[in-house]
Amino acid sequence: MASAIYRLLKPRSPRFSLYPKPSLTSAFISTSQLSLSSSSTQTQGINGESERKRWSSLFLFLPGAITFGLGTWQLFRRQEKIEMLEYRRGRLALEPLTWTSISSQFNGSRSDGEMDSLEFRRVLCEGVFDESKSVYIGPRSRSISGVTENGYYVVTPLMPVKNKSDSVQLPILVNRGWVPRSWRNKFVEAAEEAKQPSHTTLSGIEESKGSFWSKFWPKKSEVVEVQEPKVDAVKVIGVVRGSEKPSIFVPENDPGSGQWFYVDVPAIARACGIPENTVYVEDINENVNPSYPYPVPKGVNSLIHHSVMPQDHLNYTLTWYSLSAAVTFMAAKGILPKKNRR
Known about the structure:
Blueprint: H1 2-9, H2 24-60, H3 62-92, E1 97-98, H4 99-102, H5 112-118, E2 122-129, E3 135-144, E4 147-159, E5 172-180, H6 181-195, E6 234-241, H7 265-272, E7 280-283, H8 300-304, H9 310-335, H10 338-341
Parallel strand pairs: 1-2, 5-7
Antiparallel strand pairs: 2-4, 2-6, 3-4, 4-5, 6-7
Helix pairs in contact: 3-9
């Protein structure tokens, strides 16, 4: 009886369980795996943060590298400008060429290569100016005794003179120099008056004495000799140049309205009715007649002078290098540890 009661009260162990009872070994392994995974995650986070800091530190030095490169570029530009100015001085120091001696090279055509070989060479030209086809480039300012006055450069075709061997055989464009604004205003007014048709009415026919007898005796035909006006040839000492390269701030030329803001040789030649490959010369004759003070020819120094001279490039170099040193110092100071800075 007692044994039967013991068998009934004794707990039975299940034969099969879906969730086995964990042991101490398995619990230790799972804990170690969690710690390893968390430590690896922390390590990856630390490595990623250090990588970002490294790239951000390098990015701080980028402005210093850019400014240093700009300063070095200014040094190369300075050397190029020195060579260019020396080339111009050497060309202008040569003896002037007579236009008749070099016009045979063109043979009726003027290529760009031939023009490049003549640029900045002084030439002696002779012909007659066609004032009616003048073109005014500007406005261009000129300082006279400390006073700045606005005006224009006047470009006029130099035409050949008939039966004169020393004259130019083909038209050329000559920049005669600077003129005040009043010159252009007078030229525009004269051009507008020339465009207006002249209405001339005949009030009557005046008959000379003896007109009654002239019906019976016809007048003798009189031969009238038309004499061409005598034209004085002009000698021009100029320098062969090319078209200007305007900046982005200069407006476009408007040939229709007669507004020219920069020298465009082919366009000016078309407006004057001469070939587009016409030679363009800037007058540098310093022997100005006091009775005719205008136009004022360009000086030789103005041809050598450039908007940015070598000294300017040197100043720009020092500026960029100083800025590069300052930016690099600030970047280095920002990434150094606080202990090192102390």
